[in-house]
Amino acid sequence: MGTQVLWISTEPALPADWPHHPAVWNIEIQPADEAIDALAVTDYAAIVLDLRLPGWTAATLLEAVQRAAPGVPVLAWNPNVSVSEAVQLAHLGLHQFLPAGESAFGMIDQAVEDRRLGDLARLAAQVNRDDWERMLVGASREMRQLQHIIRLVAGRRATVLITGETGTGKELGARSLHMAGNRRGGPMVAVNCSALPESLMESELFGHVRGAFTGAFQNRMGRFEQAQGGTLFLDEIGELPMALQTKLLRVLQEREVQRLGSSETIKLDIRVVSATNCDLARRMEEGKFREDLYYRLNVVPIEMPPLRRRLEDVPLLAAHFVNTVCRAEGIPVKLLMRETLERLCDYSWPGNVRQLENMVEMAVALSGERRTLVPADFPLPAPLVERPATARGHLVAVPDSGLDYEETLAVIERSILEQALHKTGGNKKAAADMLRLKRTTLSAKVRSLGPAARIAGAGGL
What we know:
The chain is α/β, with parallel strands linked by helices. It has helices at residues 32-39, 58-68, 83-92, 103-125, 132-135, 141-153, 170-180, 198-206, 223-226, 242-254, 280-285, 291-297, 314-329, 338-345, 352-366, 405-423, 428-434, 439-448; strands at 4-8, 26-30, 46-50, 74-77, 96-97, 160-163, 188-192, 207-208, 220-221, 231-235, 256-257, 266-267, 271-276, 300-303, 335-336, 372-373.
């Protein structure tokens, strides 16, 4: 959106009582006829009308401007109109009447901001669950890379392992993968492996025939069969018991399944996508996850990035959730104020996208009839923020209450070491090379953090 404000008037200059203009936008003055033509080629942030233009009534001028520039806020200057005319203009969509003096600046600023937030809300509202690219809300580098990977592998049959912290949207990533591929017309069957009792899990996955066990009174189709022609999503795959891991490996290798109590083999035409928020490599070291199954599942790895690594997506995500909640409640869509978005972008979101969604739902509920959402609607602490240097120029947000400098540096250093060791699978030399350090230096840094600072994968340094 442009930063120009169009002032429609017959006068070549601003009114004499218009004070010095301190705002970041520029005012361009044009007569009505030329202004209507200009609106067809220039995107103005806001429009100000002089309501006493010769040859125009206020209503016809407002309607002409709105037809030429739909969605652009229109404000009125010199509003010496009757009450009935003011009501008519309000019904026609006039954004605001401008008073004389400095307060007019704030009203124009707010109109510009309202339009920006309105555009944001409309963009969020365009999210269509049938369009996989728009299911993944965000325009950050991480989300563009995720969409690129999904686009590459969607048409393949290879199994996919989606990793990421709790609340990052792993199931949404799986559904996007399903919708992007040639199996979109088939079913998408989701199974939460951690939510099923172990005694029922085998029957749930593979099905059973009548009499297979006590209580099996009829044949039952398992989740693998239900997903024929589509996608089977196995969430929390790291919680699968070892006995079932062996059977799952065989099903994936042979592409066929047998119901419990049956010798009949059922050929499968499905794609398997699994997800986990745990470290499967560590579970393999602990003997809790089969190595051969891990490699069978992890043919194509996809990571759902935590929200703190894509804070530039917070405004769009917040607007999307506000739009979703308000429409579900049947209320007008509320606006997120600029300072509110800044507050949301200053938070590290340990609960990721799910936490942001829940916070938005709470804010909408507690804001009552108020049309805007202000910072006080989001009672967030001010923790360390891990964000790129390009995000408002700071890696760490310093709260008003201050912070412990040495402790903060230790947290940052520990985070860097953990990430490097995680990315290299605990390989100390590779981690040191990644950080441009000597191996001995990396070892010393880990030891300096003390026994309480357990570095993942750093054992034996």
